[in-house]
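Q: Got a minute? One more chain.
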Amino acid sequence: MAKNQTKVKSIIILVLIFWVYQILLKAPTQTQHIQIIHSKWNWTGKIFTITFGNCIYYLIRERLKPFDFIGFKKESIFLKRPLIVASLPILLAFFSYFNPKTEYDFETLLYESTMPGIDEEIMFRAVLLGIMLNALKERISFFNLSIRNPSLILNGLLFGLVHGVQITKELDVNFDYLMGLGTFFYGYLYGWITIQSRGILLGVFSNVLIHLIPMIK
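A: Always. Here it is, folded:
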């Protein structure tokens, strides 16, 4: 899938970044000794991964071009279709009204409206997707099937893997297939939005809203 042999190094770096991200995210849920904030929510893991994601981004920023997706100045011609597509996850979030009502406290509101959107868009879209787009071919053939932009598919798969894998206190590893499939869809969608809008801001905004909407009374 690599564009050429020189890009294999980038793919190896991508794998290492992903596994370090996984460790930083999951480790605080397994031991209290490294938790900065003791809570039912994984504040510590998210703080670790947001810090890690920002550090990695600034270390490899020059290597990401022309796929540097962090920035505030975007041309309006790139926003029309992404805005329409970004509204889809927001509309789907309203289906939460059909679920049994859950009590949300202030901490839950604060966590869900900040941590997931910031963490996921920086790591998966700004860093991992940027590396993939630079390193992988724009089209591959698989059993006579031509697949365009495999970076989006791979980004979605990694996104689904992170959300689908569940590690218990006894270190048993389980995989929630429904969660994995659903988050693969969102990972692919937000990757497409990032590429089309030339940035992660629209994805961050949409990601925050899909967590906030179920909490609206």
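A: The beta strands are 139-142, 145-148, 165-167, 173-175.
Q: Perfect, thanks.
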